[in-house]
Amino acid sequence: MEDIYRETVTAIENGANFRIDFQSRSLKVNGRHMIRNGRYDGAPWLPEYGCGDFFTDVEELYRRYKHSIPSERSQSKSRRYFMALPESDLEDGDMLYGQHRDTAQFELEFYILCRIIGGFTWNPETMGKWFWQSEKDKDLVILRKWVEPGSNQLLTNSQ
């Protein structure tokens, strides 16, 4: 496997299904694990996102996802980490120049997964006890349990 990112984007553009699970650090494409428990073959990192500011990158990727063009397939997904605008709320520019929703969703979730696997850690002083919410877009929320599996259990037991 040469590059998990490019291989998966190509597969999604050709109709593949994918599922990212932040807590188990996994990526499945058409039922096949590409990343399992944070382990993988190949190079999953996104070259254009390297080690930039996590929140700035996530806010930009979320903006693209939120304004992406839905398909029947993307609208039928029952499990999503993030909310996107329904087609009726998209502007003309979104419809003309926006990304396809499945691809935008993958790029956002994959970026977060890669940063978590790469060692991103939760800072309760700057991010909050249970979740972080973007100042730019209040719809963008990242839960602590995605970054630190079991954190809700630990916090509940310590009170």
From TrEMBL:
It comes from the Bacteria. This is Large polyvalent protein associated domain-containing protein. It comes from Alistipes intestinihominis.
